[in-house]
Amino acid sequence: DCIKANAKSCGECIQAGPNCGWCKKPDFLQEGEPTSARCDDLAALKSKGCPMTEIENPRGSQQVLENREVTNRKKGAAEKLKPEAITQIQPQKLVLQLRVGEPQTFSLKFKRAEDYPIDLYYLMDLSYSMKDDLENVKSLGTALMVEMEKITSDFRIGFGSFVEKTVMPYISTTPAKLRNPCTGDQNCTSPFSYKNVLSLTSEGKKFNELVGKQHISGNLDSPEGGFDAIMQVAVCGDQIGWRNVTRLLVFSTDAGFHFAGDGKLGGIVLPNDGKCHLENNVYTMSHYYDYPSIAHLVQKLSENNIQTIFAVTEEFQPVYKELKNLIPKSAVGTLSSNSSNVIQLIIDAYNSLSSEVILENGKLPKGVTISYKSFCKNGVNETQEDGRKCSNISIGDEVRFEINITATECPKKEQNETIKIKPLGFTEEVEIYLQFICECECQGEGEPNSPICHDGNGTFECGACRCNEGRIGRLCECSTDEVNSEDMDAYCRRENSTEICSNNGECICGQCVCKKRENTNEVYSGKYCECDNFNCDRSNGLICGGNGICKCRVCECFPNYTGSACDCSLDTAPCMASNGQICNGRGTCECGTCNCTDPKFQGPTCEMCQTCLGVCAEHKDCVQCRAFDKGEKKETCSQECMHFNMTRVESRDKLPQPGQPDPLSHCKEKDVDDCWFYFTYSVNANGEANVHVVETPECPSGPDIIPIVAGVVAGIVLIGLALLLIWKLLMIIHDRREFAKFEKEKMNAKWDTVSQEAF
């Protein structure tokens, strides 16, 4: 990626990727290499000979500017903190220095404070169908105050009402209907769009008093103008009296709603401007501006940290549940037909909203991305969209978010940016100042109009020339008008050659700039681009066998390797035989392989000999004749067996053991008397053979005759007794069978006699 970026300056290089560095060493480039070759990954630059001190590689960082600890306070504590002194999110301000492609990660902590102040504004539909509901709401102030004291000691409540736009066809505009839109003897107030009846107050009795004076109004169509009212409640913060605390808006109705576009029915085409238009606490521009869209409402509710509770009847539950899915930090409760359950509905909805924290960030600058990972209660961790939120949070619980911010490009004007992250429905936020690393430090040390850059035609910075407009070349030596001049091409041809830059580059300002290969590891170089690093001899499918570097089509081998493809190893370790000799002393080691010179021997170390005796068998007769004066070579011992030094030892334990420097063979052989004798055979570094032999052979003792004879006799007697017992047993069985047969015949004879007498 670094090379493909074709960076002409250090700034362009570091924007190509987080692993790209720029070598500012002046003599770093080889002949034919473009300025962009200074930009590469750190390992490649280092391998090309650029010291780490000469590599520009700025990294991103972060600094916390404000880091107040989250508030630990119990309900009913002696100290009374102002809302702005309570901290639920940490840190509050930080600076991130971002380099393109390099993420910066920081941790954000959120803790629900106990006894946190609450502002609740009750916005009620006063169309005729809500008549019985109004009676129950009149006593809502004091009753709700009592219930909310269980949650917070700082609670304020306000009240507003809405009906519909005051134009046809939403209401009847006849004078009589404008005075009293209800039929019969019903006493109803004139229709209106939205009224702020009571700004937020801590006096519950005042709420009851003012709400008690309200009267039902009426309109023609079923959907109501509630969206106009919600918009004004959200944006008229001063008139409503919102504080920077938990803000709840309870929207109570038994009907649907109009939204953007519906105003055309009344001839209203101007889109809602999202601004406050309250005069004497009444919305005065309902006839001028259309209803707000759902997206517009979402934006304003979020900007003003308002959490919405829709208290609607069973009939309209499906509609408002769909609306809830579009409005973050909102809840829906089922309102009874006369609003008798409104207090419990508010308590349940508040608990549901406050048990979930959802992080929201403002609009991101172009080229900046953000991701979240949540660390919630009970070890629940989430990423992606679910990483923004944690659920089932109780008062006093602490959760953590890991936020990752990455720049994918530098802003065009290189200006700093600010983004804000906040939990939905809360006024606190984290302010993040973004500073972008788009230039290298060495660029600030550049020399404008430097004489190095062809008499001042460029700025010499970071080891290279950044050419002025209209100039080109490594040293800005040419103007753009001269680039295609045929006179310049002559400087780019080798002697006796017609090829410009060896057909591997292009001629710019009389100098070859070698072209790049698709594989960025393959590079053309040289004054005429005649060299490359990929057309060297290969071995095992690898350039230079993987044991060298290809420079200008010739392999430069690593130490211990030689050959045109660096495929010849000078290491003799693979040729070392088990006796410590190279090729067993019977061959030469060539390129790490034994070339056996003795035709009887073969194998990787010339140790295999199909027709040879082993060391022990080979020296058995000589050891026997010299140590014990017997054996086949007894008569010729002094002539044939004096080629080794012999040492006698008392026992096998005294024989040399494995681990000594000289190769050693342990032998066990039989002599002419069938006795075992033990010896070792070794050859030292000087080629001298040494034999150590146990001085006393182990001869097998003769058999003990008496036990053998006694055992044989005892065995014969026992076998005879066993046969006799078996014969006796068989005879007893036979006699018993014969006796039984006799008894049976005897009984038959008696029966015959008795039968004859009877006749």
Oligomer: single chain
Q: Hey, roughly how much beta strand do the residues contain?
A: 25-35%
- CATH superfamily label of the domain at 118-354: von Willebrand factor, type A domain
Low-pLDDT windows of residues: none
Instruction: Tell me the CATH architecture of the domain at 118-354.
Output: 3-Layer(aba) Sandwich
Structural class: alpha+beta
Total strands: 42
- What is the fold-level CATH name, i.e. the topology of the domain at 118-354? Rossmann fold
- The global form is flat
Kindly report the average pLDDT value: 84
The rounded distance between the terminal residues' Cα atoms is 131 Å
The CATH class of the domain at 118-354 is: Alpha Beta
Using the CA coordinates, give the radius of gyration: 52 Å
Largest sheet: 6 strands, mixed
| Strands side by side in the biggest sheet | 4-6-22-21-16-19
* Helix residue percentage: 10-25%
Give the helix tally.
15
